[in-house]
Model the fold of this input.
Amino acid sequence: MTAIAGPRFGGRIGHTSTEDPFTGLKADGAIYGGQVSFPLLPLLNLELSSTYNSSQSDISMENYLVNYIEEEYGINYENDIDGLMDYLENEWGWNDPTAEQMLENYTATYHDLGMAGILRADIPLGVTPFSPYLGGGAGVHFIVSDADVMLAAIEQQTTGQTTIDPYDHVFPSVEGVFGMTFKPMLAPVSVFGEVRLSKPFGEEAGNSIVTYYGGVNLGF
Done:
């Protein structure tokens, strides 16, 4: 009978492909994290992980407001800067908006702290140090995105009639993983490569998050 190993601890680094739901821009970039894995059966493990990624992007006032107004009010002013300025003046009380204001760039920041519990099943390949695995589970994403200077400019121009708060939400998610582990026999260390698909749920949750990881675990 195969003995059940002890818990394993490690870290990971990778690249994530996602979208900033606050601005509608891509928020791809590096992601870092750690994990602890508890064996339940010889080929079944419970993995608890935490990850973090952050990115910055430039966005014009026009692009942000087009995205925001379409999301909130269902009105599309894409490629219609004159229509957008008329809307801002007549609906939001903006005092004589100009094209220069609309085209000015601002920096938006994006942060995602993710936590997940994954039930992972190893797929035996016989006497080999390689072991593919797949699994699924649930998680939560703490997402913060803002462009404080731009939001302050909007509030100043509209004399407080329209207040847009920084984007700060917590979303539950479902997680799916597929990967490959390399563990030399009798060695207390293993390395892995993994693809994870995460789908946050909720209003303004954004699209699915695809992440590619490489990592290491310590323990038998």
